[in-house]
Write a structure and sequence with these properties.
This protein is an alpha/beta fold. Helices cover 37% and strands 15% of the residues. The protein has three domains: 64 residues, Winged helix-like DNA-binding domain superfamily/Winged helix DNA-binding domain (Arc Repressor Mutant, subunit A); 110 residues, Alpha-Beta Complex (Aspartate Aminotransferase, domain 1); 222 residues, Type I PLP-dependent aspartate aminotransferase-like (Major domain) (Aspartate Aminotransferase, domain 2, 3-Layer(aba) Sandwich). Helix 2 packs across helix 3 and helix 3 crosses helix 7. It comes from Nonomuraea rosea.
Length: 474
Amino acid sequence: MRNPQRLNVPIHLERDLPEPLQDQLTAQLRRAILRGQLTARTRMPSTRTLSEVLGISRGVALAAYETLLAEGYIAGRRGSGTYVSGRAPTAAAGPPAPARAPARAPVSGATVVDLRSDRPSGQAFPLAAWRAAWRRASHQAPPLEEPPAAGLPELRAAITAHLRESRGLVLDGHEVVVTAGYADALELLLRAQGRPAPVIALEDPAPPHLRIALGRLGTVLPLRTDGSGARPDLIPAACDVVAVLPERGNPLGARMPIERRRALAAWARESGGLVLEPAFDGLFNAALSPRPSVLAVGETWSTAMVGSFCDVLTPTLRLSYAVVPRHLAAEIEEGMSAGHGQPSFTCQLAVTDLLSSGCVSRRVERLSALYEAKRALVRQTLGAYPETRLLGADTGAGATLLLPVHVKAESVVAGLLERRIQVAGLADFHHPRSVPKNGFVFGFGHLDAVTLRRTLHTITRTLDDHRLARRTAA
């Protein structure tokens, strides 16, 4: 396989290995940096160039870069590109992180159960409807011109209808804009706002990929949270954007009360800033009615959403969207026509079909039932430890286990890895300058019932090894 441009390092990706391509690429680039094959201040190729030369999707290259950015091996320079970091990856800004116990590798050749993220379930996937949608889409001859910059009108109408049915959201002063990816939607939205290098307050803790994506567009500051979600009264001064997850704070699972949503809307009205929330957090629990979105309680010019169908259908579907104030829609369309890619015509038609036929809504209902059964098992198993606190196990397909101070999360994470279970430390979800909570985060939606039971048994064995007492049965 050829070497990427401006990257004189051999890269060999094997598609027959169980290890994902992005993990292979990340490991080889990390190894090249540690060995000095890629020296400090070496300019990395763009993700587009890397994907073309290696014959992989741009999403694979982007995922590898995001991991290396989070680990500190590379750094982005606005308007200049991405470079190998000139400092050690551990020299992150802010207070020194607590010492972590070295994680010993699992048994050689053993399969690792990866619980590090909320991976969607492949169970009961609507394959027949999926095939039918793509078949019908392929029956239409592709147009001679590119689709409209903001997306096909029928797809935008279908997304609008889906938000109305699933969230009760009526988009009077907003427009839906279709993009090729979540990061593209964020970039187009924030650039259209007209504030270069905005200051963004992101609730803390938050998903690392969201912090990384926003960090490429401006300066990210932590916004403290409590049991009710983000604290609007603690929004840092001079912020241009506040990014929150009001329906299901990830990873702590808090649902923001309506009073705080109104307080966020009031902040935007008084400061002229923008409140940004994801469109699909908080689904997958039929017993919980969505609370009014910040879009519903705020001014139309000061609120926006960004969403995708990764959690409902598949992460490989390169189609996302932004719900933007109407006055920004024209500027965003200009930005898209200036170089941002768009989903293919056939992809947009297929997703329109899946939405209009009710397939997506039925998929949400099916996942809600599947996840609830798994959440009940997680609560039953890990709720037996009175010294711990289980959070986020009421919505979504992931949870966080807070540990007592005498049990270090790093030690538990390392112990699980020895037993071939890979989870994420809660510290990974915190801003580098924050004092992290002591716990670990795990996703379980992608596991079948048998694997989930075995995995939970392994977790309890590891907690027992750390001398955590179990609650005895009555």
